[in-house]
Design a protein that fits this description.
This protein has about 575 residues and is of the alpha/beta class. The protein is about 25% helix and about 20% strand. Strands 3-5-18-13-6-7-8-19-27 form a 9-stranded mixed β-sheet, sandwiched between helices. The longest helix has 22 residues.
């Protein structure tokens, strides 16, 4: 890059002038300016806003700038500051502080540098309005965060003409649901196979003229068609994942082929290991057995190959991608990356240029807030896993091309994610405390559940929605009456006040009814609230569905261990592809 495009006339790269401030522990960019050179003029606001997909609302993002210029004010700073006295005549020090951040972590699950060029990086982002498919507010400190990371097979970008399906409209080729625990101690990255047969719901989608069009749903469709097909946007993939898993997706982040190429190059290559020689003509991956550092086209070939490892299937490709992402995360958090300002800048550019996000996180400021929620997670507490599936029984033997959910393994795994239970060991003290709490809760529930249970037909209960998804009370009433045979149940609508956790209030002489209902619904011991006085005959219990309620029939008592046989690997583990 020449000096002019850097915004400097003296041919000095800004990245060469980073200094570690011992008082703050942050790297600072100190740019010298002679008194003879006038400060640059303030740019008009609103220039080069973030790129937005059709139908997305305007953003207040500032102008795009190629780099720090002499006279520019630091982000969030002010102009007209007094010159430093002594030691430099009329020279000034302009200081741009780089704070620790994790933006690229959101793209590939790892931690990288923070940002100085807010306006410029905002201009790199592509923002999509997905309506109510996600959440529009900030990040609650006491709630989990669920981000859908989508890799599309659309052949956009220079050098990508030979990849993927020539006619692809941009399907969800790679999809990972990244669940961050509410205490921010751990995370689970759940890969969803693209060839999974599932139902795609009707999806309201923003149009170029600002209107909203309902894209019809489809039963028995391939999961990857939840994006691109019939004009479906990433919000439709978010809705499909919610229908499939029972997990509310908060935000999405989408990248194309260039993301892998640019990020792997920016970090200086990603270490990988292969157990055998590889020569895959389809992906163009050619490696000898052993360790390699891949970037650019070779990195992309590694994550695209389906014929080099395992049983040569998309499920094996998912494992390879998880290995690559784990390695990239380790590389991004390595000392060599974290202490290299040049890599900081390169990663910032690569991540934002390759990124599409929803409007809820559609600015560098919002992404930085999100990054702050994630930066403390240790890699050993990030677990990659895959939604358990089996070959589609509807397809003939020898022609298996799609898969279906393996419910016996998938449901307990999803219950763990919905229940915010880590798949990996956290620090021993924290884990011991959780185990003790779980043991106490189980003992309390066992004690409460001792004794007779009323017949379903004799259970009387009023159902309130105190924080569950819209329609939870009516859905639960329908489930109780038509699936569980509880005719003496009624829907009382919204509760007088919101509650964080579902609770069942009952009298001592209703304990047999409470046991029966708790068993039906999978209520934890903490949900059972027994009063002190007996109730009059025919008095109903009171069931209030809280923010933890995910749907009728979805147990609120999550397993504490992953089902046997579920594939998983921690992000700090180096695995050799076989």
């Amino acid at each position: 890059m020449d000096a002019q495009s850097r915004g400097r006339a003296d041919e000095i790269d800004p990245a060469d002038q980073w200094v570690l401030n011992p008082r703050t522990g942050n790297y600072e960019l100190r740019l010298e300016q002679s008194a003879a050179q006038a400060p640059s003029q303030r740019r008009a606001p609103g220039t080069t806003p973030p790129r937005r997909t059709p139908g997305s609302p305007a953003s207040p993002a500032g102008p795009a700038v190629p780099g720090p210029r002499r006279g520019d004010a630091p982000p969030g700073g002010r102009r007209g500051a007094r010159p430093r006295r002594g030691g430099g005549g009329g020279r000034r020090k302009k200081i741009l502080v780089v704070t620790g951040g994790t933006l690229a972590f959101l793209l590939v699950g790892g931690s990288i540098a923070g940002y100085l060029y807010y306006d410029h990086l905002n201009g790199n982002l592509n923002v999509t309005d997905v309506g109510d498919a996600g959440t529009s507010g900030g990040f609650s400190k006491d709630q989990p965060i669920n981000i859908l990371v989508i890799g599309t097979d659309k052949r956009s970008g220079a050098g990508n003409e030979g990849y993927g399906d020539a006619g692809s409209v941009g399907h969800a080729d790679t999809t990972i649901l990244f669940h961050v625990a509410k205490d921010r101690s751990n995370a689970t990255a759940l890969s969803i196979p693209r060839d999974l047969i599932t139902d795609v719901p009707t999806c309201p989608t923003k149009q170029p003229d600002g209107s909203t069009k309902d894209i019809p749903g489809e039963r028995g469709a391939r999961f990857n068609t939840s994006l691109g097909q019939a004009g479906r946007d990433p919000g439709c993939t978010m809705r499909t994942v919610k229908e499939l898993t029972g997990i509310q997706v908060d935000h999405f982040m989408m990248a194309d082929f260039n993301a892998v190429k640019n990020l792997s190059t920016a970090v200086g290559g990603v270490p990988v290991c292969v157990a055998k020689d590889v020569n895959d003509k389809d992906s163009k991956l050619k490696l000898t057995a052993g360790e390699h550092r891949l970037q650019g086209e070779q990195a992309l070939a590694f994550v695209r190959t389906r014929h080099a490892f395992g049983q040569r299937s998309d499920l094996d490709r998912i494992k390879t991608q998880q290995q690559f992402l784990g390695s990239m995360m380790r590389e991004m958090k390595s000392k060599e990356t974290l202490t290299s300002p040049q890599k900081f800048l390169s990663l910032a550019e690569a991540a934002t240029k390759s990124l599409s996000v929803d409007s809820g996180i559609g600015s560098i400021a919002k992404l930085t807030d999100l990054a702050g929620e994630l930066k403390g997670i240790d890699l050993k507490n990030i677990t990659f896993t895959t939604l358990p599936v089996i070959d589609n029984p509807a397809e003939p033997v020898g022609s298996k091309a799609t898969v279906v959910v393996k419910q016996a393994q998938a449901e307990p795994l999803l219950q763990m994610i919905r229940g915010d239970v880590s798949l990996t060991e956290v620090e021993k003290k924290e884990q011991a405390a959780k185990d003790a709490a779980a043991s106490d809760a189980k003992a309390k529930l066992d004690a409460l559940m001792q004794g007779p249970r009323a017949a379903a037909a004799d259970v009387r209960v009023e159902v309130y929605n105190g924080g569950g998804p819209a329609g939870s009370a009516s859905g639960t009433l329908n489930w109780l009456q038509n699936t569980k045979g509880v005719p003496k149940s009624s829907n009382l609508g919204n509760a007088p006040a919101k509650v964080a956790a579902t609770q069942l209030e009952y009298a001592p002489n209703q304990a047999d009814q409470a046991r029966a209902l708790a068993e039906m619904m999978g209520l934890p011991a903490t949900a059972l609230k027994m009063g002190t006085a007996d109730a009059a005959p025919k008095t109903p219990m009171k069931l209030t569905l809280g923010a933890d309620f995910k749907g009728a029939g979805v147990s609120l008592t999550a397993p504490q261990q992953a089902p046997e046989g579920v594939q998983r690997v921690e992000a700090d583990k180096s695995v050799c592809a076989k």
